[in-house]
Amino acid sequence: MLTFVTGLVDAFSYLLLGRVFVANITGSLMFLGFALGGAPGFFWESYVLALVPFLIAAASGGLLIKAFGRHRGRHLLASLVLQDVVVAVALLIAFIMPIEETVTMQILTVLLAASFGLQNSTVRALKVPDMTTTVLTLTMTGIASDLSKEGSGRGQLRRRSASILSMVSGAIIGTLVIQYLEYRLILVIAFVVILVCTLLSLRLRNSKAPWTQSRVL
């Protein structure tokens, strides 16, 4: 579900916020290089506005690790609550400020990039195999490798394929919403999906299942 949100919000940020990626942050890093190299149509300020809050939020995720890192269920819940709050603020900004204004684009870029920096920090700490939710390069490599495997490799193939399809589906839906519906609906969907994940994770906060006990982070 969070991988779907990645594709959805990156469609929003790339198509409406000045060709910037707020979730697949590697794309913004590459674009920053293009801008610094003098390529036309790329503006370094936009990419810095995505990269800096992403990294700050990811670093701040260390505070969550200290507070909840020994229990993965509580760590996940706390992270989702914070991410949904940030997305809610972005949604509010999108409703009260015109998207065409540069300051609106900048504020939304900062907020959304920060939300995914936090998400990435949490996913990295949880260490769920093949579930990075944002960067899928290694996932696609794993799919190519799994095609020649049998047995357990097929299970990995299904999981990795689901990640790819989720992100692509999010990107497709985000693009269609922008073209034919109301662009703010993208942030509404993102907020609702993260909220659903938050509600689902509530039952995990007191779980004593083995997977909730984190390895050394």
TrEMBL record:
Keyword Lyase: no
InterPro entries linked: DUF1275 (IPR010699), MFS_trans_sf (IPR036259)
Entry annotated with the keyword Transmembrane: yes
Keywords of the record: Membrane, Transmembrane, Transmembrane helix
Domain of life, source organism: Bacteria
Pfam families from the UniProt entry: DUF1275 (PF06912)
Transmembrane segments: 12-36, 42-64, 76-97, 103-121, 162-180, 186-204
Protein's name according to its UniProt entry: DUF1275 domain-containing protein
Organism of provenance: Bifidobacterium crudilactis
